From TrEMBL:
Residues given in the record as ATP binding sites: G118, S119, N120, G121, K122, T123, T124
Pathway: Cell wall biogenesis; peptidoglycan biosynthesis
One Pfam family, short name: MurD_N
Mur ligase central domain mapped to chain residues: 116-295
Domain spans labelled Mur ligase C-terminal: 317-430
Its job: Cell wall formation. Catalyzes the addition of glutamate to the nucleotide precursor UDP-N-acetylmuramoyl-L-alanine (UMA).
Keyword Signal included in the entry's annotation: no
Organism, scientific name: Salinimicrobium oceani
EC number: 6.3.2.9
Record-stated family: Belongs to the MurCDEF family.
Protein's name in the database: UDP-N-acetylmuramoylalanine--D-glutamate ligase
Keyword list, A-Z: ATP-binding, Cell cycle, Cell division, Cell shape, Cell wall biogenesis/degradation, Cytoplasm, Ligase, Nucleotide-binding, Peptidoglycan synthesis
Amino acid sequence: MFQGTKNTERNFLVILGGGESGVGTAILGKKEGFRVFVSDRGKIAEKFRIQLEEHGIAWEDGQHSEEKIMQADLVMKSPGIPDDAPLVSRLRGKGIPVISEIEFAYSFTNAVLVGITGSNGKTTTTMLTHHLLKDGGLNVGMAGNVGQSFAKQVAQTNADHFVLELSSFQLDGIEEFRPHIAVLTNITPDHLDRYRHDFNQYIASKFRIVKNQTEKDYFIYDADDPVIMKWLQENPIQSQKLPFSLREELEQGAFIKDKQLIIRTDNSELTMPTSNLTLEGKHNAKNAMAAATVAQLLRIRKETIRQSMESFQGVEHRLEKVLKINNVQYINDSKATNVNATYYALESMDTETVWIVGGVDKGNEYAELLPLVNEKVKAIVCLGVNNQPIIEAFGNCVDLIFETQSMEDAVKQAYKLAERGDAVLLSPACASFDLFQNYEDRGRQFKEAVRKL
């Protein structure tokens, strides 16, 4: 981390990116005595401009004033800016530290931190963990990829605990950040365009979450994930390991036996019937194991954990049941932006399914979906600018494949294809940027189109 953070009278903090994390960092930086300047090459949204003005923070948008930026003592860059962006490279070449919001905010809080990362499941696990800890009476904030920025919450709240959803991009910008409890849900190929199409670089990025942990800290991870297990065999870590598994009974960690979810930590054991879990699917059983293990470690009462598990409503755009029309269930899984996330969605389907799929293909390998598609999918509705990879992947195992260019058309087509007892599943396996602003916009348009049927 940047040395001398606490001695801020002469420190000039430059923030690249005027979104949620950038403005949150600016507010915290100003509070801690930094001279702050926010620079965004795009347009800063009005709600963020208002916040910057209210706090008296200098900013610019539509450009980067490089001469001024190069005078920085410390730079925080938005996770959306690649590490190899020319301006970032020039800053580092001059010896100016470039860090993430997570790293910056970490310097100014003494809260107990739970960091959660993974290719899939991290949002659900984060929200469920926060739900359990809040129900358990802890003064807990939730930040990172969900909710308000971590830095802004450190500036404006006095939370004793934070649950942080962390992307690989955020972890790339840490130096000293150390969560007391780290969770890794799984690792599958994703965002490889940011990692020179090298899966090993992406794996190493995810494991940065444990790099500063000591033997006093905990690492919760999926013992069924071969990528995680291989890395751990080759790279010893300091923290206490608490795996979770659907396949084997564990001396320490979480597993399922005789339809009971069992969690063993520090000579304590929690059991609850799997039938009490409101979230469906094997992947959600794993998310529940991870979250409940955190709650156990933080001494939440066992009965509170059981009750909280039963009351959790799930995450918008993740296997979200929208409506049942003519006895056909419509399900919004717009957050499934990669093949692995869609695998989990299809795996959880127990009826004939009309599958809406497509978007910006990030070099997807669809082969692993073929057995599930063969077994469960009666028709495919493609929703994207380029649907050819999907048609080529599944044309031999699904007779009915239709192309659409709008959500309204996709939902109408699915409505025609679905029969009583079927499900219509939006689980795109792709990014959304060809036809939508983001996956939230895609999911909301799906729900709106369903309600119009």
